[in-house]
Write a structure and sequence with these properties.
Layout: E1 2-3, H1 4-17, H2 23-35, H3 39-44, E2 49-50, H4 52-66, H5 71-75, E3 77-80, E4 83-86, H6 96-109, E5 116-120, H7 126-134, E6 139-144, H8 147-159, E7 166-170, E8 181-186, H9 193-196, H10 219-231, E9 232-241, H11 247-251, E10 259-266, E11 272-279
Parallel strand pairs: 5-6, 5-8, 6-7, 8-9
Antiparallel strand pairs: 1-2, 3-4, 9-11, 10-11
Bound molecules: S-adenosylmethionine.
Length: about 280
């Protein structure tokens, strides 16, 4: 049997050889997942003897990680705003940047609860479910062009007991949507096509449909801003996550005669990442 220290050292070396970033931190996370113990436990009890079965499980997880499989795909789940979401190959893994989108939206709503919310491009349903948990009286619609994504979103809504309050609709952007909303929130695909091949190999394991925002990255953002006025109540808000260096181009897409002031906010990494506007 080997100790925790010996296995994390082995894991670090193995991941380093396979050119995985932050090998030491990743080896610790993977052993912590294998043993179902927090990383503090592993650091404090580094002489803890690991059973043969756990050693083999750790080696098999290490192998998956070295092949570029994201940790969320290995565990099948990801935390988002304090709730656990199922993730699989059909959905984008929820990101901390997107937690920021929801948090900034809540700040800008200043306590005004929206009655009808649309989460356009819902993916795993992380935004729709989180908002439904926060606004228990709101009617929430989550839409996506991919039925496979929607199936995962439905499972997440069931697990979080919000399935009865969210309607999931398969729709190419607004094509199958009806009625008006007080809030349209969206994290659409926004990576320029040419940049996709430069992404880390882990990101490339995620659905291309969730990433590719066309030649300049703002193909969907443009379409959403153009159609949103038809689907928003007066003084309704649009809240969107956008790509690196897109804020200037996207701000210009809001026609002054239709929209009130456009607000851009930064993410936790200091990058302009969110754009908001209220309809007149
Ligand atoms: C960046 S992911 C966001 C997923 C999730 N909302 C999140 O924040 O983790 C974009 C999503 O848009 C969906 N999508 C791509 N093209 C679409 C379209 N034309 N209409 C609706 N949804 C689309 C993808 O299937 C994917 O689930």
């Amino acid at each position: 049997m080997l100790t925790v220290r010996e296995l994390t050292n082995y894991g670090e070396e193995y991941l380093k050889q396979h050119k995985i970033e932050e090998p030491s931190q990743n080896a610790l996370i993977l052993l912590s997942l294998t043993l179902k113990r927090g990383s503090t436990f592993l650091k404090v009890f580094s002489d803890y003897m690991v059973s043969e079965k756990d050693r083999q499980n750790f080696l098999s997880i290490l192998e998956k990680k070295a092949k570029g499989e994201p940790i969320a795909h290995i565990t099948g789940e990801q935390e988002f705003l304090g709730h656990i979401f199922i993730v699989d190959k059909n959905v984008l893994i929820p990101r901390p940047e997107t937690e920021g989108l929801v948090e900034e939206t809540l700040r800008l709503l200043k306590g005004k609860a929206p009655n009808r919310i649309l989460d356009l491009c819902t993916g795993s349903g992380c935004i729709a479910c989180s908002l439904s948990l926060l606004y228990q009286n709101a009617e929430v619609v989550g839409s996506d062009v991919s039925q496979k994504s929607l199936n995962t979103a439905i499972k997440n809504a069931e697990n979080l007991n919000v399935a009865e309050r969210i309607k999931f609709i398969k729709s190419n952007l607004f094509s199958k949507l009806e009625g008006k909303f007080d809030l349209i929130i969206s994290n659409p695909p926004y990576i320029p096509t040419a940049d996709i091949s430069k992404l880390q190999k882990e990101v490339l394991q995620e659905p291309r449909k969730a990433l590719d925002g066309g030649k300049d990255g703002i193909l969907y953002i443009k379409k959403i801003i153009n159609s949103a006025p038809e689907f928003l109540n007066s003084e309704g808000m649009i809240a969107m996550e956008i790509g690196y260096q897109q804020s200037e181009a996207v701000s210009k897409l809001f026609k002054k005669e239709l929209w009130q002031e456009v607000v851009v906010k930064k993410d936790i990494f200091g990058v302009d990442r969110y754009i908001f506007a209220e309809l007149k």
